Amino acid sequence: MGLHSTSLQQHKARVDMVTLWWALTLLTFLSSEASGTNAGVKVKLTGKGLEYGRQIGIATLQEKLKSIKIPDISGTQSVSPIGKVSYSLTGLRILNLGLPKSQVGLVPGTGVSLSIGDAYINLHGNWRVKYLKIIKDSGSFDLAVSGLTISATISVKRDDTGRPTVSCVNCQAVVGSAKIKFHGGASWLYNLFSKFIDKALRSALQKQICPLVRNAIDEMNPRLKTLNVLAQVDKYAEIEYSMVESPVVSISSIDLSLKGEFYNIGQHKEPPFSPKPFSLPPQDSNMLYIGLSAFTPNSAGFVYNSAGALSLYITDDMIPSGSPIRLNTKTFGTFIPQIAKQYPGLMMKLLVKTVKEPSITFEPNNVTLQVQSAITAYAIQPNSTLSPLFILNLNASVSAKIYVTGVKVAGALTLNEINMALATSYVGPFEVKSLNSILMMVLKVVVIPKVNVRLQQGYPLPAIGKMNLVNTQLHILKDYMLIGTDVKFTA
User: Per residue in 68-112, pLDDT tens?
Assistant: First the structure.
């Protein structure tokens, strides 16, 4: 019994069937740290992922800095040999702004560092001067600022809703050299600029850069708040994806802990087990690594079993019309004569259900699922009442494919074989093996296809904004499943 992982698109397993009908549908990942102890799912953002974030962030910051508003500048200065000169610079606006060199790094224990170098700003404005009380002059000018440097430290924490939050804890901006070109006016205007106006312009720019950087960082939080910390799966279950502690920032990665626990809707009851500790390997070929421990699907099995959802009634109208095997006492009477004798000419119904929550374990290239399940057969009386015929204990093995599509986990099952034992008979003793072919057919053509329809729809993964997963790989390791992936955001 095992699920063999060879690639993203094919992982085979031999597992207990009834559990997989629902539990494998619940392989939703990216949740961590359950019940305040060990992580159910661990998420690692690598340097490659940070670099992708830098590219998005710099484009956003560049647009933000283009909104710099430089106020009109005016004053009076003594300029030899003219004397007092009244000047004003008005209508200053940015024509172009570039951030050609930038890099991000990790600040252990804090968050992310951002540094920008060799940035430039090109501005245009109007000038006006008055001197000797009666002489006036005016024109326009272009200002080229180069050598602009910006450095900031971004703190990454957990907010009170369990989502990540960022803030700027330190920012410095230094305006480098500036070159001005006047259109109109005399050469002494350059001296006036270099001695007085240059300082005023630099000061006006520097005062606005860091507030805009902080604003750009703060504007990341609404996107981070799109993390669906409580996601409804269906009418039975929801998954909690909230962070249980602030991210851990090391020299090489940012590690997140999300709860990753299934709950009955409206009833958050903890299961009688907790996650085992595990660690993600130090890999960096992908932007993001997600480790899903066995705790998450086990909590799903607990929830669905508690809700009574791990059961299925099978009736004859669910059997293909061309099948020679029917769910009636005539067909079953061929193998168990006393059924046809005691209940002649009646249709039948089968109930397949778990009797205890399933248990799943991860081993290298292998997923093992243990379940206690039962099949109860009924004869349907003319007045629609059900007469029990027998109860079988059932174990089955299946092959499974699990894959990631978009931001969902999906899968498909194939039944291999079943093992049955008689638990109770209401019609006297009979040979259980005689029913093997009938029940194999019923499970293959009814149960497995129904499960696969749901599995192939997939289950949403926790996501922020319009996030897509690309270049995804999946591996089964000891105690957890590892998904390595790159990320792409769309507008």
Answer: 888 888 888 787 777 888 888 899 889 999 999 999 999 999 999
Give the neighbor-by-neighbor strand order of the sheet with 459-460.
311-315, 347-354, 373-380, 386-405, 408-425, 459-460
How far, in Å, CA of 355 to CA of 77, rounded?
A: 91
Task: Give, in order, the Cα–Cα distances in Å from 34 to each of 39, 40, 261, 278, 465.
Answer: 6, 6, 7, 13, 24
Q: Which two tokens stand for residue 2?
A: 């095992």
In one letter, which amino acid is 110? T
Decide: 401 and 411 in contact? Cβ < 8 Å. Answer: yes
Instruction: Average the pLDDT over each of 190-194, 225-229, 347-351 and give the range with the smallest value.
Output: 190-194
DSSP string for 262-323: EEETTB-PPPS--PPP-------SSSEEEEEETHHHHHHHHHHHHTT-SEEEEEGGGS-TT-
Give the up-direction half-sphere exposure of residue 160: CA atoms within 13 A in the CB hemisphere: 0
Helices (H), 415-473: 436-442, 448-457
User: CA 268 to CA 273: how far, in whole Å?
Assistant: 14
Confidence of residue 426 (pLDDT cuts 50, 70, 90): very high
* pLDDT, position 135: 82
The label of the residue with tokens 């060799």 reads: 118
Q: How far apart are CA 361 and CA 295, in angstroms?
A: 9
Parallel/antiparallel/unpaired status of strands 359-363 and 386-405: unpaired
For 243, list phi and psi in degrees, rounded to 5: -75, 140
Domain segments of the chain as ranges = 4-46+230-489, 62-219
Determine the Cα–Cα distance for residues 33 and 257; give it in Å rounded to an integer.
5
Q: Say what the pTM is.
A: 0.78
Rounded to 5°, the CA angle 439-444-448 comes to 120
Residues 6+ apart with CB under 8 A from 68: 94, 121, 205, 208, 209, 212
How far is the C-alpha of 76 from the C-alpha of 73, rounded, in Å? 11
Q: Write down the pLDDT at residue 322.
A: 87
CA 462 to chain centre: 3
As given in the structure block, the two tokens for residue 67 are: 């909104």
Nearest to 74 by CA among 196, 180, 207: 196
> Does 4-46+230-489 match 62-219 in CATH topology?
no
Query: Which of the listed CATH numbers 1.10.357.10, 3.15.10.10, 2.30.30.40, 3.30.450.20 matches domain 62-219?
Result: 3.15.10.10
**Structurally, what CATH architecture does the domain formed by 4-46+230-489 represent?**
Super Roll (3.15)
Which helix (H) or strand (E) segment holds residue 54: the answer is helix 47-65
